[in-house]
Design brief:
Length: about 280
């Protein structure tokens, strides 16, 4: 199981999500249930999924006084009907945390499941599936964790931990070669310089300037193949741009080292996970 991001990066998000949903209180549950009513429920998969977000869901429930028992781990595969977690305690607390907990698990399991699909599509090649910064605002560390749970790899966490020269950077300074030279001269020596290229000529220019990696964006397989050949032994090659489950295998067969897929996070459908009540009792 990949390491969960530091709590400091997401506990505040749990607090904000609960406050958003609860407001001054759960009007429905407070009208129907007395505070001393207890109950139990399970979180279960309703489809084939890669599980992710159970520790976050547990944090949600525990903040409402609910006890949790996880029966799966993040990164596990689950089938329809599999129980992922049991919860028990105050009925009010279970119902107050239900939607928020499910939102986290459905979203993160959805990202992990979508990532697994891309990983399976490139089996037999050496291409790795990597994510992008196209994440839900404030959810980045959790969504990138979900990518890891699905078998993908993280690209930059943000603008601060990698030098990636994009087309607008090149336009601002005049050429790919000049952009790479400036990055090598002025940038941190601890960061690799990656440059976006759109042609074989531009790739050669970036390579001659010392680029450590090339990002080939929105190019057909034949162009990617030519750039991979030119960069062999000199730089890593990443392909990106409109990558889908239908096209990713052909891109992988060009010999690229990485394929970055924004859809892992910006277009992953929510996983089908539900909470089902299993027991009721009154004190």
């Amino acid at each position: 199981m990949p390491n969960l991001p530091p709590p400091s990066t997401w506990l505040w998000l749990v607090e904000a999500a609960l406050a958003e949903d609860l407001g001054p209180g759960d009007a429905t549950s407070q009208a129907l249930l007395s505070p001393d009513t207890s109950g139990a429920a399970v979180l279960e998969a309703r489809a084939e999924i890669v599980v992710c977000g159970l520790p976050v869901a547990q944090e949600v429930f525990e903040r409402r006084g609910v006890t949790c028992e996880s029966l799966a781990r993040d990164g596990d595969s689950a089938e329809p009907g599999d129980v992922l977690m049991r919860v028990s305690g105050p009925s009010l607390g279970i119902l107050e945390g239900e939607r928020t907990a499910l939102n986290f698990v459905q979203r993160l399991s959805g990202v992990a499941t979508h990532t697994r699909r891309f990983r399976l599509a490139v089996r037999g090649t050496h291409a790795e599936i990597v994510d992008t910064r196209k994440t839900t605002p404030a959810w980045r560390t959790l969504e990138k964790y979900a990518v890891r749970c699905g078998g993908g790899r993280n690209h930059r966490l943000g603008l601060f931990d990698g030098i990636l020269i994009k087309d607008n950077h090149i336009a601002a300074v005049g050429s790919a070669g000049r952009a790479v030279s400036l990055a090598k001269e002025r940038g941190s020596r601890h960061l690799r310089v990656r440059c976006e290229v759109e042609s074989l000529a531009q790739a050669r220019e970036a390579l001659d300037a010392g680029a450590d990696a090339l990002l080939v964006d929105n190019q057909p397989p034949e162009v990617i193949c030519a750039i991979v050949a030119a960069a062999k032994g000199r730089a890593l090659v990443e392909a990106s741009g409109g990558v889908t489950l239908e096209t990713v295998a052909a891109i992988a067969r060009t010999g690229v080292d990485e394929i970055s897929v924004g859809a892992l996070t910006h277009s992953a459908p929510a996983a089908d996970v539900a909470l089902e009540w299993t027991e009721r009792s009154s004190s």
